[in-house]
Amino acid sequence: MAAQPLSFLQHPRLWRGRGRQPQQPAWSSGHPALDQHLPGGGWPLGALSEILHPHPGLGEISLLLPALANATQQGRSIAIIAPPLTLNGPNLSARGVQLEQLLIVDSDSDNDTRWAAEQCLRARLFAFVLAWPGRCDDRHLRRLQLAAEHGESAGILYRSSEHARQPSPAQLRLCLDPMPEPRPGGISLRLIKARGLACSFAQPQRLQLGSELIPPTSRAMA
Q1: At what angle do helices 138-151 and 110-122 cross, to 10 degrees?
Q2: pLDDT digit string (tens) for 192-210?
Q3: Given 3.40.50.300, 2.40.37.10, 3.30.565.10, 3.40.50.880, which CATH number is that of 25-214?
Q4: pTM for the whole thing?
Q5: What is the pLDDT of residues 150-192, one digit of tens each?
């Protein structure tokens, strides 16, 4: 019998009970304290990540700015789909984001937002696809996950924190909260899911990124 090729054993979706797991391709978040807790050391590529938050404006876009700046400075494009707040171009530029590399898509419905996100994720044109998809069920999320795998993009979905206990195919799930005293104005993250890492909602890993990472001038962007 001819030997069977073993390349399938390197597939990133194959789980091994023992032995070293394959390295997850990732794009550094630009926050070393955060990268050390993320699969592959950054935002997973070819996968969905969810950033859950109680309401817009807590710094959910600012959290991504170092990675977006790095990507656009390397000539990579970014798709931003149905943002709930107006993006401040001068502030984005001041943080290093190359505005000519941005595609901003407005949407009139959740269906249109999900459709646009899926097309951008599949296109193999964007390093990051940021989307606010509104109401999503498991079927919608799995379609977006498959699109991200096909396009090898980092898909970032912004959703309400009320969905934190809802099962999701996303490889990474972070819950964003306001920074409590004595450091108001910053952001606090709870890592509630990271594929390959021991983590659950019952025992979240709490990470705090100081307010110095989110200057006051940037708060209007998110």
Answers
A1: 20
A2: 888 766 555 555 556 666 5
A3: 3.40.50.300
A4: 0.80
A5: 999 999 999 998 888 888 999 999 998 876 654 555 677 888 8
3-state helix, strand, coil in the chain (%, to 5): 30, 25, 45
How does 13-28 read in b/e, with b if 16+ C-beta sit within 10 Å? eeeeeeeeeeebbbbb
Tokens encoding 149: 């795998």
Residue type at 59 in one-letter notation: G
Q: What number of residues does the chain have?
A: 222
Provide the Cα torsion 39, 40, 41, 45; round to 10°.
Answer: -90
Contacts of 151 by beta carbon, 8 Å cutoff, 6+ apart: 46, 120, 121, 122, 123, 124, 125, 126
Model pLDDT for residues 3-47, shown as the tens digit of each residue: 444 443 344 444 444 444 556 799 999 988 888 888 889 999 999
